[in-house]
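LOG
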Amino acid sequence: IHPADRIGAIPAVGGTKGVDWGKINELKPDLVVFDREENTEEMAQACQWPWHASHVRSVHDMPRELRALAQRISGTTLANLA
């Protein structure tokens, strides 16, 4: 995981199959990003914040999925999502 000296500043809020909604609520996110292959539908349904679900099955899916994410955040500055 790189850069190692900055990774500690990223808050841990769960993993692919479980999430700590209390920690996420404390962060007050502008957008929560899920992946359909990794995260459960129940996680997305429980999310009280705006969310986006990608569905990456191969490297060939990346352009489409990145465009969809870019459209989702088009009205938001990236600084607000960092």
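LOG (cont.) second protein
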Amino acid sequence: MKKKTFAKVLSLALAALMLFALCACGAAETPAAEPTAAPAADAPASEAPAETEAPAESQGVLDQIKADGVLYVTLSPDFAPMEFVDSSKDGQEQYVGLDVFLAKYIADYIGVKLVIEPMSFDACQTAVYTASVPMSVSGYVWTEERAESYEISDYYYDGDNKIEPVILIRTADEEKYTSSEDFNGVDIGAQNASLQMQLVTSQLPDANPVAVGDVGTGVLELQNGSIEALAVAKGNAEIIMDANPDLVLCPWEFTITEETEAFVILITKGETALLNVVNEALAKAYSEGMYGAWHDEAVALAKVVNGTEE
């Protein structure tokens, strides 16, 4: 009888202990928060919850440009009169040309300082694509591939001139190259990732396109016979011929579309706030007649740099 009573007491004690443990665990849990009641209509203003101002919508890289006070722009300074180097000057001042004047105008419009990042033509495009630099002003034209990879600005112009891709040849070969068939099997130089390279590939399919690092190198290769022709923009060709009378234009011409008759600016994809500001600046520059003035100044500077000033 004592053994049964003891066992019964022990069982009751263990049951009580387990119940206590369960209650203790339940008390340790965090109770669910009660919903906050709306303030009464006649509650004093001090008792109402403070209103917080919604954060301003981010404008992406444009915010950073304004915060830093600097607009970084990349270009390939081998394309007079659009962008080239004045070796009589130092630092940022050595970069001159219509595109440089335009980039400075855009920076002033935003209210920041301009810093030029010189690169090869294809490296400029890579830098903007990877967002290393937000913008490139370097004599670009619209292409479908660029439209897919970048934000593309509105058009701007080389003065009153439309873009006109041409082929430079040696004066001695003036009678040799007069038709597209004459370039079959011929080495034709053009900058990599340029409109000229696309045109050589598509409109002279039997020629041998040769990528040149920069236009200056291409001119030397043409003169020493490493290539037989060089595809460039006509405005650039005119500056080159002024300094190199041994070079002339080939009478055969490329066919271009209306979309490629003027220049555009490349901006990192998705940076629409910067694109909008750039387009505002382009419209303002156009309304003020700046393109013609910049063209004339750039051509005059190019002649001085090349030693062909009359």
